[in-house]
Amino acid sequence: MSERVQDRSAGQGPGTKAERRLAAQLAAKKAAEAKRRRQSILGAAVGVIAVVALVGGIVWLNSGDDDKQATASTPSANATAPAEPPAAAPAPQLPEGADPALGKKPEVGAGKGELKKLTVTTLIKGTGPEVKAGQAITTNYVGVLFKDGQQFDSSWDRGQPATFPIGVGQVIKGWDQGLVGVPVGSRVQLDIPADLAYGDTGQVSGPLRFVVDVLAAQ
What we know:
The chain is an alpha+beta fold. The chain contains 3 helices and 6 strands, in the order αβββαβαββ.
């Protein structure tokens, strides 16, 4: 009986070693698989964290842009005030006792019909001395085309009255003939045919209409 026991023990020895080797191999395999799973889980977690960080950064940047836009569109108490518009031209110095209407630029429209002769229409009659040929007169005026009322010249738009000699050929004939004898402080309308203005050719041609304020004469 002891010999059979010994034989059985001897037979179990190699089998047990083989089982232990197999068990060790299986354990190593399981450990490797577990390690791979841990690495895979860790990699996925890192990826999720990266995505969350990226999304959070985008949201933060967008919120920053919104804050900037809100700040830019909100007036600041220390903001510089907008530049004031240019000051209007000063009102002309009117002769004593003149109608205050001479302080405002008149509206001048087109004429009617065919203009064949110089026509002087008093719009405001002044109380000063009458203009004499050879005097230098100071005027404000607006000039338009008689046919359509298109403005081509205005001392008002330049911001200061114009001074020139009258009745001595220094201006168009319509002015020389139409303004001599007009009292200072007057506003007159001169409808001037082409032959007493600039003729029928050129940039300003044909009959013209002027509204002239006589502010001074000396």
